[in-house]
Amino acid sequence: MTTPAPFGGLAQETRICAHCGYCLAGCPIYQAVGWESASPRGRMAIAAALVHGNALSAEAAQRLYECTLCGHCRTVCPTRIDTLATWLEARQRLADQSALDRLPLGRLRDNLCAAHNITGEPAENRLLWQEELSLAPALLNARPGAQVVYFVGCVAALYGQGHAIARAAVEIFHRADLDFTTLGSAEWCCGFPLLGLGLPEEAAAVARHNLAAVRALAGQAVVTTCPSCFHMWRDVYPALLGGPIGVEVMHAGELLARLIAEGRIAFRPLPGRVTYHDPCDLGRNSGVYDAPRAVLQAIPGLELVEMADHRKHARCCGGGGNLEAINPDLAGELARQRLVQAVETGATLLVTPCQQCKRTLATAARRERVRLRVLDLTETVVQALA
Ligand code: SF4
Ligand code: SF4
User: Fold this and answer.
1) Of 229, 258, 287, which residue sits at a domain end?
2) Using CA atoms, how far apart are residues 366 and 371, in angstroms rounded to an integer?
3) pLDDT tens, residue by residue, 245-263
4) Measuring from atom 4 of ligand 2, which residue has the nearest CA?
5) Is residue 230 part of a domain?
6) If we measure between CA atoms, which residue out of 30, 44, 27, 152 comes closest to residue 89?
7) pLDDT digits over 231-248, tens only?
8) Residue 243 located in a structural domain
9) What's the predicted TM-score (pTM) here?
10) How many whole angstroms separate alpha carbon 174 and alpha carbon 261?
């Protein structure tokens, strides 16, 4: 390790844990699995064993990765343990012990380190979402001097289900006369999955690359449609790189709320009942709750109803923390449980400002044959543009 881990204190945090169990009720993994070893408290005991130098069984190591990094345990822990930092540092120790190759995580690491994205595809595939757009590639890709750089993110760029989100975002930005571009094929994964694997040094290298690419264009702001990219750029890049990064970082929900307030976006009515899913990395882990809701409330005819668990207690959709890579069935069960809460509201539309949440929840809705449309916030806004 040449780059220090962004967090520390695993030994101290595991000692502080009072084993009170307050974190159990809100942990989506524990709720789905029901075993102590699948709970935050059980994970603390496994992490403590790591601290004491005990060799972990493959099953115990897997438990440390079967966590979406949703952050709910950190929200409720009465001893104020930074559980997310604890899980990340524990994973770092496991990665240092070559655990990724003993778990089904080596391929994700190799994709990220060799191709700089989660799927392992060539860099030019990051432009496939642009094919049906009328906007000129020279405007969209690496245009020097553009004020805002739209950081597309792996899911919107490389998954067919995500392409509509990137297209909706740039259509809105164009209609609002925003001076924007993207990094085009020079964009790398934001590094969040590397951090989640326990590879902060590799995540720091990614941060350096992406920041240099934005600086080369003289971009003044970065906007993302992905909450994890947003959290990385705004909160983790400065920690990884040792100081302020010198560009404003916004999530699309914040930018859209600003464009609406400035009168640069106007809506026609879009009648219906909508419920809103807080992505963990936008809400609980970044503190952005109001701006995306304000965007929905600005659309005439749209009635916003909240799910039983919302804002800082929102349930995770299962899409975070690389859970899909290590246990896709468990990730699907978390999405199903969140979908049940959405259906209970009576809404016919479920909106989330996250390409990964949209993908997991839309997949669950199809699998469960639920009559509930799942859209990203940008897709909803583009449908309501006057
Ligand atoms: S709430 Fe905090 S102190 Fe209590 S068991 Fe969970 S991690 Fe430990
Ligand atoms: S971060 Fe979320 S999934 Fe992970 S242990 Fe905490 S509550 Fe459970």
Assistant:
1) 258
2) 9
3) 999 999 999 999 999 999 9
4) 67
5) yes
6) 44
7) 999 999 999 999 999 999
8) yes
9) 0.95
10) 17
